[in-house]
Amino acid sequence: MKTTKILINYLIATGTLLGLTTFFNPPTTHAAGTYHALAVKRVNQVPIHWSGENVSAYLWNYHLNHKIQRVSALGNITLYANKVLKMTNGKKTGIFYYVTNDKGTVKGYVWRGYMVKGELDPGTMPNTGGIPNADSDELENVEGYKVGSDRYNEEVAYNQDASISNQFKAGIGNNIMHIGAQLHRTDPTNAKLSTVPYSHFKFISNSTKPTAEQRHELVTGKLSFYKFVKADLEKQGINLDQYQHWYIGADSTPIYKAASKTKYYPTFGDYTIALLSPQYKSEIEKASGPQN
């Protein structure tokens, strides 16, 4: 019996009993307050990349008390997880990856919540927040901005608004037109709307809110914002082609997956289109200021 116990202890120590030491419990000795691993699982170069949703994501040293590098500063690269660790400092516990790049020049520990499994195609950007049908220019415009911030939302909505102004080819785009549409969408009673040139604007807004199914289709990209607006205008009996020589602007609430966690989710599909007859050309030019 004594010989058997000695053999088992030897097998555990060498890792033979667990088979290539896929899992092991690290030593229990550690400094008070610092992070240490409760359990470790070895994995074989699992490709992962930054989700892009938090610019404060860092690579850390083992004890998670020293920042090595900001993950966003690494660029659009794929990292590879070699270990998955359950770590704690006695108060907080989380799952972390030990990662390296393909050349082994980047190494560190990163919280699992900041990463997404899978390879990132060279030169592409992480789709921060889950913007439906986002192109490379749109992803570049939101890079570095926190998901849900004012600037992030402005960039997302800008592309939606442009799809109305450009694809309908209803008239001449102008920033003052966008401002008027924004004023009306957020507060139709705004006193500024009674002043020139806004007082001459014609406003069109969504007739009904999208259904739960339409909200899902919008956020997943199955239904484009352009097609949603076009169908809603047709329901109202409006054809923007009759405004081909008018000034046009649009404003809408941003649509992206993570917006379901913000105040914008209940307003998915809200939009306002502003139109101005060309007879007011001088007023719109005056309001726009000097043109370069």
From TrEMBL:
<protein>
    <recommendedName>
        <fullName>D-alanyl-D-alanine carboxypeptidase</fullName>
    </recommendedName>
</protein>
<keyword id="KW-0732">Signal</keyword>
<feature type="signal peptide">
    <location>
        <begin position="1"/>
        <end position="31"/>
    </location>
</feature>
